[in-house]
Amino acid sequence: MRVTISSTVLAQIVAEMRASPAKEICGLLFGDGTAIHAAQACLNVATDPARTFEIDPAALIAAHRHARSGGPAIMGHYHSHPSGFAEPSAHDAADATPDGSLWLIAAGNEVRGWRAVRDGAVHGRFDPVTLVSLAPCAADSASPEDAIDTKDFQ
Ligand SMILES: [Zn+2]
Description:
This protein is an alpha/beta fold. The chain has a single domain, classed as 3-Layer(aba) Sandwich (Cytidine Deaminase, domain 2). Helices cover about 20% and strands about 30% of the residues. It has helices at about 5-20, 55-70, 90-95; strands at about 1-5, 25-30, 35-40, 75-80, 100-105, 110-115, 125-135. A hairpin with a 2-residue loop joins β5 (about 100-105) and β6 (about 110-115). The longest helix is centred in the N-terminal third of the chain and has 12 residues, at about 5-20. The chain starts with a strand and ends in a 20-residue tail after the last strand. About 35% of the residues are buried. Zinc ion binds near residues 79, 81, 89, 92 and 105.
């Protein structure tokens, strides 16, 4: 599976991750199924946010409600691993519903994509997704320093 992501959205997620070195960040991803157009940062309400994440249920409900009334579709969500790798942890696998939703995981200088499926290649729950970063349009202000290493996904 191949999913495109606006480089502006990618830079936004990385900036959030870098601003939160001790706690996992999390948020929702919006798009049309194969293209991520926007990300919305959400409060991490997990009891141990240094090691896990739980998207603020109020934000989740609001986004679903908005999607049902014609707003952007929720493709999945993203979170960070402050001291780990950009791959799903065993804890992520235990929490994931195999519903085909997209998981973006940010760590170090990487953002990688995964899809929660039955019998996935990683922890029996996730298949890797090829993330393709699209150049920003002229109106975007992402700077070259925000460039993310996506070589692993090509
Ligand atoms: Zn995780």
